[in-house]
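Re-run with default settings, no changes from the original entry. Doing this only to confirm the output is reproducible before filing.
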Amino acid sequence: MAKPNRHVIVCSQNRPAGHPRGSCAQKGCAEVVDEIMKQWQQRQCFTEVMVTPSGCIGPCSMGPNVLVYPEGIMYSNVSKADVAEIFDEHLLGGKVVERLKAPADIW
């Protein structure tokens, strides 16, 4: 397998209801994970992009969160509708989606 240009880490953390930190699952991360996997497969960009669902990666209050390396860009409050733009602009196009970028004081 060739080394991918970018690695996408998608929070899929699920904590029990009432947990003080909440979780991305309570904010729809399953839809985001599913859409990222769908887009990844449809675009057949397996050698350019690696996708990894993960546990907590950051500010739960700002989730769902998506982290892109090697740039170290965190996207917050990501919805299923945002995934195509992240793919088109950043993952394949190399341009950060500024409107989704986590605030500097968060990441």
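Strands lie at 6-11, 49-54, 66-69, 73-75. The chain has a mean pLDDT of 92.
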